[in-house]
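I have been asked to look over a protein record a colleague put together. The record follows directly below this note.
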Amino acid sequence: MARRPGEYAMKTLFLICGLTAVAFVLLITGYLVLSGLPAIREIGLADFLLGDTWDAANPEAPRFGILPLLLTSVYGAAGATAIGVPLGFLTALFLAKAAPPWLARLVRPAVGVLAGIPSVVYGLVGMCVLLPLLRERLGLPAGDSLLAAILMLAVLILPTVISVSETALEAVPREIEEASLALGATPVETYFRVTAPAAGSGVAAAVALGVGRAIGEAMAILMVAGNVANMPALLGSVRFLTTGIAMELAYAPAGSLQQQALLSIGLVLFLFVLLVNVLLSLALKRGREGD
């Protein structure tokens, strides 16, 4: 059967859109590699990744070690994921399978509002509410700390985890759940042992997007973390990779080693997010093979 002109045109349009997306990824990758490698070569890979001091303002002997920033980003993303992903997944499971319709109609728009709030507003609320609370409860001098950043990131990733996980859970065929119930499983057992594994790929995508948001957030963290390039401590002021770029890139002289080092941090962030996605994909693939 000959294809209709409209069908051929739409197929061509979809192909162009897909190739455009791939081209953008390749362009970003190429730019980060070409811009970030010169600084790494000049500083030295070991000194750059494992150096424990970032002191770009020293005119005589600037140092560009990102280990404190790197570890802070890892700990911050891990802590936010440990809090936000379970909470978001359970919320999504509740909305998709157990919530009364009237309650789901109230909660879903609230999740959408959370997703639409600018990160600077989250940071402002964190400064005005979260930091004073930590100062009062934990006796911190200012309240800005890695703990504040983790709590802020956990809230920031919730809308992404909830919305993507709920979509994946709702896509599970109802027949699979009915078969589980017919075999004597309770609804809760069915949700956790049948529905959740069947939606594993979608939930993994939600986790990947949430981790990517946690790693890539800058503005809200800039307002609650303290922005001191210390080795990470839960109750101490810290600086993330993203906030390091946000704080210094506008003031770094064009073409200077400092600017190149900041671009190298962008390359590290890109590779970090790529590694997280690859690891999640491998874990999901092994889980399927185990089943």
